[in-house]
Design brief:
heterodimer; A: 102 residues; three-stranded antiparallel sheet; 10 strands; globular; B: 817 residues; 31% helix; binds siroheme; binds flavin-adenine dinucleotide; binds iron/sulfur cluster; binds FE2/S2 (inorganic) cluster
Amino acid sequence: MADWIEIGRIEDIPRQGARTVRTGEGDIAVFRTAQDKIHALKDECPHKGGPLSQGIVHGDRVTCPMHDWQIQLATGEAVAPDEGCARVYRVRVKEGRIFLMV
Amino acid sequence: MKEKLVVIGNGMAGVRTLEELLKIAPDLYDIRVFGAEPLGNYNRILLSPVLAAEKSMDDIMLNDEQWYRDNGIVLHKGERVVEINRARRTVVTDKGVEAAYDRLIVSTGSSPFMIPVPGVDLEGVVGFRDIQDVERMLEAARTYRHAVVIGGGLLGLEAADGLLKQGMDVTVVHLLDSLMEQQLDEAAAALLKRSLDERGLKFLMAHETEALLGDGRVQRIRFSNGLEIPADLVVMAVGIRPNIGLARSAGLYCERGIVVSDTLQTYDPRIYAVGECVQHRGVTYGLVAPLFEQAKVCANHLGRIGTARYEGSVTSTKLKVSGIDLFSAGDFRGGADTEELLFQDAGRGVYKKIVLRNNRITGCLLYGDALDGSWYSQLMRDEVDISDMREQLLFGQAHMGDSGHGAADQLAAMPDDTEICGCNGVTKGDVVRAITTKGLFTLEEVRTHTKASASCGSCTGLVEQLLVSTVGSDFTASPKNRPLCPCTDYTHDEVRSTLVRHELKDIRAVMDFMEWKTPDGCSKCRPALNYYLLCAWPGEYQDDPRSRFINERVHANIQKDGTYSVVPRMLGGMTTPDELRAIADVADKFNIPEMKVTGGQRIDLFGVKKEQLPAVWADLNKAGMVSGHAYGKSLRTVKSCIGSRWCRFGTQDSAGLAVELEKMTWASWTPHKFKMAVSGCPRNCAEASIKDLGVVGIDSGWELHVGGNGGVKVRAADLLCKVRTREEVLEYAAAFLQLYREQAHYLERTAPWIERVGLTHVKKRLVEDPEGRKALAARFHESQKSAQADPWEARAGGAEAHEFAPLKSLAVPPETA
Ligand code: SRM
Ligand SMILES: Cc1cc2nc3c(=O)[nH]c(=O)nc-3n(C[C@H](O)[C@H](O)[C@H](O)COP(=O)(O)OP(=O)(O)OC[C@H]3O[C@@H](n4cnc5c(N)ncnc54)[C@H](O)[C@@H]3O)c2cc1C
Ligand code: SF4
Ligand code: FES
């Protein structure tokens, strides 16, 4: 049964930053942009698996800390000319609370 | 309703402007392009290799028709604009089409100048400008034998070489008695002529054409001295004339070209002009590099950013005749106030000339070995003081004690599978293919598409050389006005001086004031801004962790598996049983999987999980150890040898001084990492000669060496001066660090910084100006007051706790979108 589950509040994540959510299948990176948009991606760069949660968040992208690929937060797509896609999770924010779909 | 943008001229400048505009404001305009030529946009400069059958037409297309469709641009090809009606704001074409504009770009290029001699209208008399000219030449080559090229300049020689390769018998006619007089002096021209002679080109020097003779088609050519020779094809390559007729008849002010301002606007501000048809500050250009700079500025204005200014270009030329290596830039003739460096080896056919004024390069001419052309022109544009490298200058960059370029000499001869970029495994073939198939022109473009030189950058010179030899000219933007990153048009230096002058004290303020193009910057500019602010406003600026790379944000080095390494500081490489015991205890307690003695004389603990970091640090703190900043653009280590305390050769107490130096400087943030070493005697066991600052003990005191590097590009440090006392060493070290902190670009180590500003400059500020040195040292100590706090201690005490703990742990894995 699909269900929204709360993982924290928006202010738990610094602006232009990220936190991780632990799961049995690896970490999920939850990002907060300068405009307070929340996105969730698998914490694995499509390049060589770098932890995206540790990158620098700018605009609607994150730059991977390992080799500087840029990943689009909304789609998980690498910015051209790099090619690849990080897994995207469904996430929503309600009254400052963040939910993931499990 | 979107505004309407109309472009007249579907050539290199007009379309480049559109490309730049689409990058910054893709949806601002409805765009319509009129081009007299029947094709999409192609790379005109590669017409020479097409004529020489080295490339096909497909190879040189830049934007096919699909590109126009993809970007919503309406292309009217084969349609000439015959009128600009400024009152109605429309253009009218030869097909009777009328199109309205809100803004207009005139990029009509230029036309070959056809000498007005009798017979110039005969069939078989052509210019060398567009694909139709090339087709007519190829056609003639199939049926006729005798070709005459009038004009021994760049274009004429490329045409002649192409026709020769097509099997024609080719004579080059030149009015003067020296070839390419715009780009070559007599000595180089003679070498060039000799090697073209050897290929079978014929020359008639100092000959003036009087008439072209023939019945319908040209058959003969007659000169003013009465000589007549057969000619079935005559190519006129004596110069170009900007196409300004259309603009002039619309009442736009023209001289030799359409006169434009620094924002590429004509007399009518709705109308822009770019490319060979314009005259800017009195100059017209006939090469693509200036057009590309113009295109950027014009797009910036059209895109309503309006920050960029075009201030003219320094150009350089390369002859695209395969097998002939020739490069010329700037004022290579010199004058009364210049000096010349000359190298001549007639046997090998090599000639190099560098013209200097006040120890700066103002021009250069290379024949036979042009590999260092782009390096010289970079030194020229950056106005680098070359006093320190004068002796080796003529031998090229490979001889500048920079082993990274050792292989450069053979670049041209290298096979395609030679690795150019060791970091990203990119071969010469990859780079050349990307340049030709994707139509790349700049270093930045090659970087994004191939990743070559995108990492350590040591192959930048090689990539630039490949660009030059593949596209035919030096297309890289001058680093002097190279923007900090794509988010801005301003350079490092401009950003820095502005934030100081206008007292901008946080990143937001800088981005707003300097009109950043992106909402919150990128991973290149934010860390740079953070550093510049930190350096400008010590104690006052609030560090922005979100603008720090991960290592600096969490004060540990991220490893390939996402764990971290921890390196506690060991001042001067000295340690004690207690410290070692504490490290061993930490390793046991936290199950540290691996430990290593580093190249910086301390101990690295590997495989620490992020959540463990605060606890690991707390234990190390308890034993009196602080962060080693092994992760930072900051003071790293001060290596030492043991020196006079134990060593039988030691003349000075190097270990003691190293400890003092490290106590003074640790935790300082710098543009890039900064390493020191102190050796007790000239045997130099601490390898001080490859450090950013190296100190070597001598009988009478200490030698100070600066700008060394042992990394990607080995560079031996330069001797700055000798001093007597430890106090002096400390003062010089503080002053040198501060000068570097205040002047280097972010991510520029001392070695490239010193090569850029010159050792002489550093000596002036430090050695010759004791007051200035003391002031620099004082500013350094001031900044250390707020910097010298152990970041580990704060975090072990709970600061930034969110960094070190997950937000939540879930039992059930969530759904992907
Ligand atoms: C640990 C160490 C290797 C070792 O086990 O000995 C090391 C490890 C790394 N070095 Fe180094 N370097 C280490 C001494 C050196 C030295 C030798 C020295 O300092 O005497 C050099 C050459 C000297 C020099 O810098 O001129 C050196 C030249 C580099 C370079 C090239 C720098 C350059 O300007 O060319 C890089 C790349 C960079 O900084 O961009 C680099 C980058 C790195 C990085 C940070 C790579 C990375 O981004 O992950 C490595 C971090 C590993 C880690 O997590 O700790 N490391 N590295 C050494 C740490 C010394 C310390 O105690 O802090
Ligand atoms: C053979 C050759 C080799 C060259 N080699 C080099 C080199 O190695 N390095 C270098 O830097 N430069 C080189 N150049 C110069 C370079 O190609 C030009 O500087 C550049 O193409 C100029 O760009 P532009 O847009 O101003 O003009 P163009 O590229 O000529 O574009 C102008 C376009 O406008 C069209 N046009 C004109 N009037 C109208 C009108 N009324 N209506 C509609 N369309 C119109 C023309 O048909 C043309 O297509 C070379 C040029 C040639 C011909
Ligand atoms: S040389 Fe330095 S950067 Fe390269 S693998 Fe070794 S530690 Fe890492
Ligand atoms: S792992 Fe992300 S860029 Fe290489």
